[in-house]
Specification:
single chain; 45 residues; little secondary structure; 0% helix
Amino acid sequence: MGGRDATMVLLDENGIRCDGRKIDEPRKIMIKAGGLKNADGSAYI
């Protein structure tokens, strides 16, 4: 829209993402069971 090209840089010249992860390195996650007693369509991620 507007005739402009949009680009997003995902990796630097060394193949590192802006958050410091390598291209083949997954994001760290934490899973917590029992975070909500009565979750009505919600999730704690």
